[in-house]
Amino acid sequence: MAFTLALSSPSPLNWTSINCCYWEGITCNQDGWITHLHLPFKGLKGGIHPSLGNLTHLTYINLSHNSLYGSISQDIGFFPFVNRLEILDLSYNLLSSELPFSLPSSSIQVVDFFTNHFHGVIPSSFFHQTRNLTSFNVSNNTFSDIYNATTLEEIALPVNLLYRSISDRIVNLTNLAILNLYYNHFSGLKFIFLHFNYLEVNSLNTLPPSLMNCTNLSELLLGDNNLEGDISALNFSKLSILSKIDLWSYNFNGPFPILFLKYLSFLSLSGNKWTNLTGAMNILMRCESLIVEIPADDGLVDFDGFKNLQILSLSRCELTGQIPFWLSKLKKLEILNLDFNRITVSVPIWLGTLPRLFYINLGSNQISGEFPKELCRLAMLLYEGTSAQVYQNYLELPIFVKIRDDAKALQYNYLYFFPPSIYLYNNSISGNIPTEIGQLRLLHKLGLGFNNFSGSIPDQISNLKNLDTLDLSKNHLTGKIPESLKGLNFLSYLNFSYNDLEGPITTSTQLRSFQSSAFEGSRYQTNAEQLM
């Protein structure tokens, strides 16, 4: 009854029965304890009496759509002894003051304060004991800052006074499905990192045009989501200070509008269906800050830009033609990834002249010709002294690499952890594997499978003491497996299957440790099965 004393007279509630379990809006459990208080749209006016805090078995409170007003004590908070509460709905009232330091229950799941007069900062302690909170709606109040919660699935804070930037702690909300922040003051928004989600921004799975109003945005990282559409409909000219863009593995199409992005330093556009990239390249030549990823064009013979470019990754871009000669001028290039395209002709011999190159992936293209001996002169793969200068480099943004469709993408933050590799798998390369390959003593991964290589396996491969991956499968290699390969102690993946090899497998414990599938399809298969 004390609850009605705080209401303006006359009270609209007819609470006269001796047994409160029969009162309007009250539900009790079998033991007679009040568990539900359901009083929306009752015309209630006045304050919320602290006596509600004595109902310690309450799990549900709904006082929405009334005219309740007044403040809530910072110290007392929302019914501090109601520690079973799961639903708290005070929406559409006139309640004011700042939020208390904490919510009453660690079991609370839904909090709805929509359309009140709450204000100030939402304290970080407000969420400390709310590990089950899934929905937090404080729309149409006047909050000026927010903090992260725990397992939140929905945050609704539109029509507030939020300004500057959102705390980077929001990345802890791994279950977040809905983030509603419209009509705030995020003029200082600088970073959007949403890569590697299954993001659908709206029913059309497109980026909203309103994103272009974030004029202070400097980093937009949305790689590997479910977005699509014609990106030319977005006016990127408003985002003139963008320095980093990651739209990797989308289904975007159309011309990419980058005319005004003069501060661009990171651009990842792999896995899309862009058009008009020739014009884009002419613009990007003037982007002196660009040092990471770019779109490519085969027609820039006289190209003389990107002198600081370290990493070129254009996987799955449906590129055609040969690898352009202007890449030979990129003397600081360290990583070249052009896999899963339609590149033709042969592996250019000038790749072996790039002084800092230590990772090449040209897999799954239509490359023909032979393995150039010049590729065995890569300085970064010859001696420890030369490689040290590159391996210390920290990548300002991570690189994600997926060698196979059924494999998880690996993230690399340091070039030190990026494995020195040559991948030429799934092409039409023929001829012998050059014996000079034994010079690449720092090579970790060699993938030459699914080609037309012939001749014997070079004994010199045994010089590659750091090799952990060796794939020569599905070629036309003949002869025996060199006995010297037993010295490759770090080898963790080996595949010689489907060649024309013969004879017994070396008795090396190292080679015998691999499954028989690594040797199937050749005339030594029976011997292999006996040894395994």
From TrEMBL:
Transmembrane regions: none
UniProt xrefs under InterPro entries: Leu-rich_rpt (IPR001611), Leu-rich_rpt_typical-subtyp (IPR003591), LRR_dom_sf (IPR032675), LRR_N_plant-typ (IPR013210), LRRC69/RLP (IPR052595)
Any one GO cellular component localisation term in the record: plasma membrane
All copies of domain Leucine-rich repeat-containing N-terminal plant-type, residue ranges: 2-29
Domain of life (superkingdom): Eukaryota
Subcellular location: Cell membrane
Alphabetical UniProt keywords: Cell membrane, Glycoprotein, Leucine-rich repeat, Membrane, Receptor, Repeat, Transmembrane, Transmembrane helix
Protein family membership: Belongs to the RLP family.
Name of this chain's protein: Receptor-like protein 2
